[in-house]
Give the backbone structure.
Amino acid sequence: MKKTTYYLLAFLALVVSCKTSNELTEVTSASPQNPKNPKANLRTLPAGDPNLDANWDWTNQTWNVYFNNANGTIGSVSTLNPFTDGTQKIFGNTNVSQADMYPAQGWMLVARDFGTPTGANAYPFILLYNKHRGVLRVAILRTYDVLSSFQQITLSFATTASYPKLFKFASTVPDMAGANANNQFTQSALTYAGVQQWMIAEFNLQGYSASMDDFASINVNVSEVVNSSVSLTGSIQLDGSAQPQVGEPGFWGGVKTITSFIAKASEPVSKIVKKPESTFAGLSSAATVLEALFDAVSGFSGGDSGSSYNIKLNGSTTQQGTITLSSPKTSFSVYLKSFNTPAYHALQSIPWGVFDINPIPYTITDYYDNFDHEGNPLGYTNHYFTLDVAPNFVSSVLSVNPSIVNNISQIRAKFVSGNSYLNSVTPFESLSSFESRSYTFNSTDAFFNTVGIGLEFIFNNGSVVYNVIPLH
């Protein structure tokens, strides 16, 4: 069997590793899903710890926190409430009376660790959950790390129990949202905070499960991200020999875009690939010669069994762009249920999730009519869809969290269509009215695979939850 020589392998490795000017390259020092950092939150909360108080008032305008310094000592800081603090980049200057943080708006305290004078972790945190909107808010104090350009907070499920459906509607891809029992298991958010400011992220936990594993828990991971500009220059010189072989055009396709090398062959290219000299006539520039050489390599057809050809490459390479370095800083897990454990856990019974919905039963019939109702030719083709649904076709497959159903003043629905689900087909109406009939759309209104139902929950306090449920 004929094989490529070391030269070809070395050249391929170089081409794959090189980036052209103005491209970005990312280097991640460690996965944020598995931080190996001594600053990870490993603290347990003993009985009587003030951080176990489920009635602690997070709406206070000042938060006093304790944290571990790098040298092992415990430091403290008094910060303004980040939900009204004008220096915070997430919420900014907010009127205290209108701030989005009050229990009357549906917010509940899940867990916190602001430390004590005798025990603390490196990164104090608080988790709040809005039982109406299904939003988990994570706030973590950035203590003494100063090098990051921004921070990334990632929420995932711990693997110690079965996954609940909380993330079911978290996907931003319309064709995926609600299509599976749980179509993703990780959510990430970027945040910007200075030293002794709060890193804040919000996550979608709208999916409701009628039952949940007693030991289900979520993981919170924090990484600091640094962007640096780089400019690299250098030169290359490769000498070797090539044994003709069957070409792989798709394999070499990406190589043809590299034009910063000068290629010279000790044998005419036409002899290597056994094509006439005229095939390569007029190739004067280095870039064009190189492209022709790659065409030649991808066109090797075997040649003589004992033939090999010497090839030399000489030239320079330049790389400009940015390098992104991600450094894990802290990670901790929180049990979703409230029970007696020194580990982080929900401090009270949290009504996790807003709603769940099974596949909606429907039938779509596609029509092309060339005649009107009286049988006269239209002069054009009338294209429309008839969507047939059973009575209560939404409510029969809809499950609302019974803990919050009495807080809902109205459920409304409408049909939406288009690849982005942004084009309205019908106006919002009450769910009972929406479910009372079949529907007919013309070809400009709906498309077979892009018809969805916009479902809106309006709560007594004015909160609104809206999702698009795909029909296909």
